[in-house]
Design a protein that fits this description.
Shape of chain A: globular
Strand content of chain B: under 5%
Oligomer: heterodimer
Strand content of chain A: 25-35%
Number of domains of chain A: 2
Number of strands of chain B: 0
CATH topology of the largest domain in chain A: Rossmann fold
Number of strands of chain A: 14
Structural class of chain A: alpha/beta
CATH superfamily of the largest domain in chain A: P-loop containing nucleotide triphosphate hydrolases
Number of domains of chain B: 1
Distance between the termini of chain A: 45 Å
Largest interface: A-B, 32 and 29 residues
Radius of gyration of chain A: 22 Å
Helix content of chain B: over 70%
Strand order of the largest sheet of chain A: 6-7-8-3-9-10
Number of helices of chain A: 11
Chain lengths: ~325, ~280
Amino acid sequence: MTMIPNAVEIKDLRRTFKTKAVKSKKELVTALDGADLEIKEGELFGLLGPNGAGKTTIIKILATLLFPTSGKAEVLGYDVMKDAYQIRKNINMVSGGETSGYGILTVNENLWMFSQFYGIPGKIAKKRIKRLLRVMDLEKKADAKVRTLSTGERQKANMIRGFMTDPKLIFLDEPTLGLDVNASRLIRDFIKDWMRSKTGRTVLLTTHYMMEADELCDRVAIIDQGKILACDTPANLKRLVTKESTLKLEIRKVQDISAFQNIKGVKRFTYDHNITAGITKLNFILDDEAIVADIVAEVPKSGSKIVSVEKSEPTLEDVFVTLVGRGLHEN
Amino acid sequence: MKINRNTFKWSAWLGWQMESNWTRPFIFAIYAIVRPIAASLILVVMFYVITYLGDPSTARANFDFLFIGNAFFMYIAQVLFGVTWIIHDDREHYRTLKYIYISPANYFVYILGRTLSKILITTFAVIITLAFGVIFLEVPLNPLGVDWLLFIPVFIIGLLSIIAFGLALAGISFLTAKHTMGMNEGIAGVFYLFCGVIFPLSVLPDWGISFAKILPVTYWLDLIRTSLGAGAGIDTAVAGTSVEVSLVVLIISTIGFALFSIGTFKLGDNLARRKGYLDMTTAY
């Protein structure tokens, strides 16, 4: 059996930042706290965690944008501290939720310029740009100035910029952040197709969309407060909580939710208020299914009405709640 | 090597697009002609007001000195402001710095390419200004009388020294936000004051003259005036120095500043990567 080499190897990686939280008083913030990670070549690997968990810091270090404070990080066998140039020839990065690009240039001009920064021969660059514009459904905007594009179109152009260099390893930092359903789906489908058509290519994807990680990733690492808490396939991670039951309740007019926390047999409990709809979603991880009746009985006592009840299969969100003790969108 | 060549070429093209493509070509052409003339006319008016009160016998020589110095100072202002603005703009406005930085393109070469476009545009402005001076203000500049063998090497070496200053400031810009613009204004002001741009160095105190003599731009402007045969007729405090000596000093100081600027740029780059400033957005 041949050993698949690592595309990324991180050992005891630490990164701290000095910030001026209070006027004239410096504070040390730990972004990465001894993270260990191995990503095999050919994997579509997901880093899942809330805002500030350390996902982007890992990507910045691996993409040679940031030095680690201590520890070791290797990309495609090259040290991020010493071999930045070797790494840069083989990687690319796409960040979501931002509007990067020179607005004064057309989409084609922007992409062409970046292709030249990578030394891609002219004919190949033109061919790749044309093909990717078609795949990303952006052909009609090829000669439009970047400043005239919508957020989704800009992100598609950004994706083309990242993939047109045919990188061995690409970092996708929240690539669907802030996009509508159609644009998100197109980008997810593109990532899947790219991985299928290119052997030995690796993707490191950060997201806080659980469904995205579940749908796309071969393996997922759950990160919180700079520490990798678990790393496995989505199926294996979900098995961590299969012994437990999960219950999702949607209730209206809730006045006091503290009572739900104290029900015996509730292992974990998170909630999410949708103020506009006037609905609160309650997520329970239970030691024993038998207490579902107790929870349902608690609803009228808390002055609420049940909108829906769902006994569901565990999701990566449940895994996250089990490991971290809080929901992904809670601070 | 191919990547560096491409990076230089396409970053220069990008710079040209950024400078010129913001409006229709006709409007840009008007702007490119009117702007340098208007900037020079401010000084011309100030000069006439001052000489009206002063000694008219030296007015012509002083005017030529000022006009030539001011025209070539455009390079200093444009390169110093331009280079640092590239870092700030790419990082915070266009958010492209990180993508260029993580490409195999050498960022130093990228900045050089962008600087080239600034120099080309400034050259156009300088030519327009000089032509305006010759036609309307009787500046005694005759292309047949120019010592081209002196002018061309001096011009190129001087530009290299200005680019070197710009790159040093670019290195510092990695570590700062918009504050760099204040720093640029200060440094450009130092050059304006101490390099004999609009008045001869001899009016400066002794320590000022000593300081001026270590700056390559001082020798550059002096040799430019000498080679053009205009504005060189008054005491500049380096006027006693022979052309050969001035040229040697210009070359040595340019090499010194080039080494300093490369070191400063690399240090700034390294510190920015250490501190996490390469994709900083301050929203200033």
